[in-house]
Amino acid sequence: MKALITGASSGIGKCLALSLASKGYDIVLVGRDKEKLEQVSKKIPTNSEVFICEVSKEKDLHNLYDKYKNDNIDILINNAGFGLFGLFTETDLNRELEMIDVNVKAYHILTKLFLNDFVKRNYGYILNVCSSAGFMAGPRLSTYYATKNYVTKLTMAINEELRQMGSKVYVGALCPGPVNTNFTKTANGTFDVKGLSPEYVADYTTKKMFKRKMLIVPGLGVRLGLFALRFAPHRLALSIIYKFQHKKQSN
To answer: Three-state SS for 80?
Structure first.
């Protein structure tokens, strides 16, 4: 049994690697920081290997697939991603385009390539790490929210296509709220609410994934918030999210 995880050097990706390894899976750790990936590899009790990949580059993604397409990968986890706080008129365009490449294009390409193989053999799990942002529009974090909407909705559509086909392949989306990782630091923000631990999120996620849950939302508070948001007028929801993100953005 083998799992391939992008963005595996820290945070949710690292914890998912450790969680799956504890269940007997060999792990392929994918990322661009060799030193950090090797540190994670040392903590994994099963067989593990490191693959250096810049997921914003299409060529690297195809090299990754070509390397492991014949390795009987059982689980693909698309986890690499980042955000960028700020008003849309002020955020850096090149950074946003890089975000789209990492948060959208990489997920799309790897899901497409591995899914075709999984469908042929009628087995496999693909987990796309999205966000509760995937159900909302996000003023002051607009491009990030848009990327997560893309991946969440794409994942849901593929899940239904597989269900209609009678396929045994699983495709699901992890949609957490705030998690204590380096996300806000990378995005130039700070948490004003307590986030879940990545260890809890990883263990919760693997349990739900193996139960074939399409949308995995850790944390009762987040689930209740998303439910309430369904009934809020769009303008009210946008105002609430704007104020929430404004509090998180650092000076």
So the answer is: coil
| CA pair distance 10, 233, nearest whole angstrom | 37
Tokens 């042929």, located at residue:
120
- The Cα–Cα gap between 17 and 22 comes to 9
Distances (CA, A) of 143 to 126, 133, 149: 24, 11, 10
Q: How many domains does the structure of the chain reveal?
A: 1
In this predicted model, what pLDDT tens digit does every residue of 57-81 receive, in sequence order? 999 999 999 999 999 999 999 999 9
Token readout for 137 is: 């529009």
Closest CA to 130 of 1, 12, 251: 12
| 201 CB-contact burial (10 Å; exposed 0-12 / middle 13-18 / buried 19+) | buried
Of 157, 64, 155, 163, the C-alpha closest to 114 is 64
Domain holding 28: CATH number? 3.40.50.720
Low-confidence stretches of the chain (pLDDT beneath 70) = 182-194, 228, 232, 237, 240-242, 244, 246-251
Supply the angle between the helices 142-165 and 106-121 in degrees, to the nearest 10.
10
How far apart (Å, rounded) are the C-alpha atoms in residues 56 and 30? 13
Round to whole Å and give the CA distance between 89 and 113.
35
Domain of residue 139: give its range. 2-248
State the pLDDT at residue 107: 98
| Residues labelled catalytic | 144
